[in-house]
Amino acid sequence: MRECLMGGRLVGLWVLVATLTAAAASAAPFVYVANEGVSAPIGPGSVSQYELGAGGLLAPLSPPTVAAGSNSEAVSVSPGGKSVYVANASSDNVSQYDIGPGGALSPKTPAAVAAGDGPFGVAVSPDGTSVYVSNAGGDSVSQYDVGPGGALSPKTPATVAAGDGPFAVAVSPNGRSVYVANAPGHSVSQYDVGPGGQLSPKSAAAVAAGAAFGLAVSPDGQSVYVPDDFGNTVFQYDVGPGGALSPKTPATVAAGVGAYTPAVSPDGKSLYVTNAFGASITQFDIGAGGRLSPKSPATVAAGIQPIGVSVSPEGSSVYVTDTAGDKVFQYDVGAGGRLSPKSPATVAAGVHPVAVAVSPLPGLPTTKDQCKNGGWKTFAVFKNQGDCVSFVASAGENPPGG
Rg of the chain over CA atoms, in angstroms? Predict the structure, then answer.
């Protein structure tokens, strides 16, 4: 009897999983762009919203933009693709939105939650249960719990100290470490993620960097890349035991003028860095040990002032915000990860677009760790952690379609 019940339970799981897998194959991701707004840095911000059409071309949704707070500087999508969070630097808050069936955003209740002084960066934990916001004016990181429906509420304590001028924040793929780029402080703060998603400084609270306005963690969690806006380089770090950073050899590689924001391809083989004052993107190969080397060509043109960059979840497209041109540049990813402009090369955005994020495709867990600590909630097919763990264990032996 027990075997029959367990077998029936797994059959039910496979039916749900097959449905989700089919949805993943046909679903189109959505792209969201944070726009600083008129009279930045104090004007009303907005979020441009797009659907990915054939060939990864962006098509504006209706309406093409939704209102945000003042001076919208960063945007992040939850792992489950149900929520969007936008950091508003001048209104000192985070706008929070539901993602509708067609990708259109609608404000949650409440529409925004308070942050620290000058929030410039926002990141969601891989399990979708925590959100972290870097406050550039307050030298702190706000930390939030993600409640039912994706609404944010402050953790206790609501903030933890960071370095001088924290502008960007990223979470490691395993969810156990958080890294913050401190631009004036020329450093990267590093934190352990404890029970309940609460942050505490690692034994070395920070490592040296350049003028760090952005940072990215490799998909395997073994490397961190931090552009130096003043030095026109990229700092590259190994991630050691416990998530602590140490410089690679060499510690830096050359980039373009005003190296600003990095993005790593999903396969971990390419890094793209916007050069804010070089009107270009530097493109790197990621080789053995996570070390960077320039592709050929080393750069591609990108408007007047490229700031934000994001890669589509399947890795075939790259999107770059041109802040001075009020556009989003869109590129195909060709052989060897090299970029070439799509046709058309650009689409219109809001006023002063600065950051871009792509929603994830519906996914399935591949490890039991992804099911723990609330991670099962990221995968809509599961009712609880046990179902998620059972799926991973069974999929290893007899995956769907295997």
Answer: 20
Between CA 369 and CA 234 the distance in angstroms is 31
Chain centroid, CA 178 distance in Å: 13
pLDDT tens, position by position, 188-200:
999 999 999 999 9
> Which tokens hold the place of 387?
């179902």
Cα–Cα distance between 78 and 264 in angstroms, integer? 18
SS3 334: coil
Closest-CA residue to 177 (of 151, 208, 141): 141
What number of helices (H) and strands (E) belong to the chain? 2, 28
Of residues 17 and 295, the one with the higher pLDDT is: 295
Classify burial at 142, counting beta carbons within 10 Å of its beta carbon; exposed 0-12, middle 13-18, buried 19 or more. buried
Q: Report the C-alpha gap between 316 and 347 in whole angstroms.
A: 18
Q: Where are the domains of the chain?
A: 28-361
Amino acid identity at 71? N
Residue 391: in which H helix or E strand, if any? helix 385-397
Tokens of residue 5, six digits: 């019940």
Q: Are 216 and 209 in contact (CB under 8 A)?
A: no
Domain at 28-361, CATH class:
mainly beta
